[in-house]
Amino acid sequence: MEPGLRERKKAATRQALSWAAVRLAVERGLDNVLVEDIAAEAGVSARTFNNYFSGKAEAIAYRHLERARQIGVRLRERPAAEPLWTAVTEAVLGHFRAMAEAPPDPAWQAGVRLMTAEPSVVGEFLKASAQADQEFAEVVAERTGTDVKQDLYPRLVAGSVSSAIAVATELWMHADPPRPVIPLISEALAQVSAGLPAP
């Protein structure tokens, strides 16, 4: 069922706040960003911010959860007859292609590295990752006819996919010279789907 107008507006506000938190934290450093700054950047009040997030770190980590949800939407849209790992790979790469294939900005990458190293952000990322894995496992279970509460398979797939993306993203952020992220993610998923044979 399609969400109503009110739900869509709330989702848009949540996303705007999250993106504002990420942008400002990358540009200024997390310690130099106030909730009021994030709210102003998104065009809402600080009180509205507090209706959506408990703090800056949670707003930043929401990007991670939202990415996983969007990949899950793409996976649901893949043809039912398509092999699982083909569908997963296309869903993941489709999301990253949609985000952009522009050359990485070294200044932005440096800011992301600093921001994601903050202990408060790391803690929120771990919480978001756990929720993202659970939600993605539910999509895998639907597709494979398994039970997310009883079977190992959907959770193992979800954990493997999130780990592959995390490792590829980490390599991308620290690559010198810079490397495009999409081929790294593609290779990570190819290795996982092949059962991680010894190199």
Protein architecture, described:
The mean pLDDT is 90. The chain starts with a helix and ends in a 6-residue tail after the last helix. The protein has a domain at 60-193: Orthogonal Bundle (Tetracycline Repressor, domain 2), CATH 1.10.357.10. The protein has 199 residues and is an all-alpha fold. It is 76% helix and 0% strand. The protein has helices spanning 5-28, 35-42, 46-52, 56-77, 84-99, 106-117, 119-144, 152-174, 181-193.
Q: Gyration radius, to the nearest Å?
A: 18 Å
Shape designation: globular
Total of DSSP H or I helical runs spanning 4+ residues? 9
Low-confidence stretches: none
Sheet-strand content, in percent, reads: under 5%
Helix-strand pattern, N to C? HHHHHHHHH
CATH architectural category of the domain at 60-193 = Orthogonal Bundle
Per CATH, the class of the domain at 60-193 reads Mainly Alpha
CATH topology of the domain at 60-193: Tetracycline Repressor, domain 2
Query: Major beta sheet, specifics?
Result: none
Quick one: how many beta strands?
0
**What's the rounded overall pLDDT mean?**
90
Q: How many angstroms does the end-to-end distance come to? A: 46 Å
What structural class is derived from the secondary structure elements? mainly alpha
CATH homology superfamily of the domain at 60-193: Tetracycline Repressor, domain 2
| Residues in helix, % | over 70%
